[in-house]
Design a protein that fits this description.
Family: Belongs to the trehalose phosphatase family.
Strand order of the largest sheet: 9-10-8-7-6-5-15-16-17
Oligomer: single chain
Number of helices: 12
Catalytic activity: alpha,alpha-trehalose 6-phosphate + H2O = alpha,alpha-trehalose + phosphate
Function: Removes the phosphate from trehalose 6-phosphate to produce free trehalose. Trehalose accumulation in plant may improve abiotic stress tolerance.
Keywords: Hydrolase, Stress response
Cofactor: a divalent metal cation
Length: 402
């Protein structure tokens, strides 16, 4: 699988020209003309207001639209007699209608299990919004004890990998399970078992050791961008330091600018600042997450490619005897959903409490339903294991059925 770098600029297309008021950009962000004061015909000096120059690139309007669309409004609530009632506004009806196209993975569990017969099930999981709830402070996005237990138990029966936008080291720190495989930076930093054939086929593989001292391979297709990413990270920290609530994270091969805790009136400021910096880095591109702007290298690599790579490196490249399942909640997970939908290879499961278009097959409403789904998988695996033990116990002594 080739990993190609390109000098193409950011991926967002130019929207129709917009004026300043529609852009929502503060007037202080626009340069003024250098024309001096004019003299009126009646001899009285009048100062002409300097007009803002036209933006050389109005894509920031598209960014703002994407920022808002990635931040669905919360359900309205009202207090009455010391209780809080959810005001549905037909949202539940809309969600149930949406589930006709994206059925609940819990209600469809038997369908999924029927498909998995005589196949090896391989599980891929996003972290934020899937295993842990979305929180105001990304450093406090912790898994619950029950969720960690569910993931650990499932991994005993099925190969399980975490594919996150966070750095690989950070997501490992948050999950803390050695039984799993980890891919950070949207799949640009993958740790997998050491196999000479894999390291020979991929130029970006390097030998390393894991926390237990075992030899592993690291696959890092964007390693040449580390210096550039560090430079952009320092710049973003500097230019956003005066914006209350803004937080910048360095994920080794990508940078995240969080605006979840920023007043919405300041979102245009963040969009413009990030846009202006990226003009000097044509080899970096911007993608949108849930109230986060993510900057990463322009290479032919994403979470979908990471899924394919892990299946290959773990020895599960034969599509006929493997059923991959990917559970995620973010736009970046759509690349993985596309890979599994292609040729009906596996199942993508979208975690979302609001209707939205997706390449997933099934849906789960929130992290609690993700845990329920993992518990279903665990019970299914334990039941199958019990049946196998009982079958073997009834075989005549010394008789091998294989």
């Amino acid at each position: 699988m080739d990993v190609k770098s390109t000098n193409a600029s950011a991926i967002l297309a130019d929207p129709p020209p917009m004026n300043k008021s529609r852009l929502g950009i503060f007037s202080s962000l626009f340069p003024y003309s250098q024309s001096g004061p004019s003299i009126s015909t009646n001899g009285v000096h009048s100062v002409t207001r300097k007009k803002p120059a036209k933006l050389d690139d109005v894509r920031s309007n598209g960014w703002l639209d994407a920022m808002k669309s990635s931040s669905p409004p919360r359900k309205r609530v009202h207090k009455e007699f010391n209780t809080i009632d959810i005001v549905s506004d037909d949202s539940e009806f809309a969600y149930q209608s949406w589930m006709i196209k994206y059925p609940s993975a819990l209600n469809s569990f038997q369908i999924i299990m029927n498909r998995s017969r005589n196949r090896k099930l391989v599980l891929f999981l996003d972290y934020d919004g899937t295993l842990s709830p979305i929180v105001d402070d990304p450093d406090r996005a912790f898994m619950s004890r029950n969720m960690r237990s569910a993931v650990k138990s499932v991994a005993k029966y099925f190969p399980t990998a975490i594919i996150s936008g966070r750095s690989r080291d950070k997501v490992y720190e948050l999950v803390g399970l050695t039984e799993l495989y980890y891919a950070g930076s949207h799949g640009m930093d993958i740790m997998f078992p050491s196999k000479d054939i894999m390291s020979e086929n991929h130029l970006n593989c390097v030998k390393s050791t894991d926390s237990e001292g075992k030899e592993v391979n690291l696959f890092q297709p964007a390693s040449e961008f580390i210096t550039m990413i560090n430079e952009v990270f320092r710049t973003f920290v500097r230019i956003t330091k005066d914006i209350k609530g803004a937080k910048v994270e360095n994920h080794k091969f990508c940078v995240s600018v969080h605006y979840r805790n920023v007043d919405e009136n300041s979102w245009p400021v963040i969009a413009q600042l990030v846009h202006d910096i990226l003009k000097d880095y044509p080899r970096l591109r911007l993608t949108h997450g849930r109230k986060v702007l993510e900057v990463r290298p322009v290479i032919d690599w994403d979470k979908g490619k990471a899924v394919e790579f892990l299946l290959e490196s773990l020895g599960f490249s034969n599509q006929g005897d493997v059923l991959p399942i990917y559970i995620g909640d973010d736009r970046t997970d759509e690349d993985a959903f596309k890979v599994l939908r292609k040729e009906d290879r596996g199942y993508g499961i979208l975690v979302s409490a609001v209707p939205k278009e997706s390449n997933a097959f099934f849906s789960l409403r929130d992290t609690s339903e993700v845990q329920d789904f993992l518990d279903f998988l665990l019970r299914m695996a334990e039941d199958a294991n019990t049946l196998e033990i009982e079958r073997r116990s009834t075989e005549p002594y010394g008789y091998d059925t294989d």
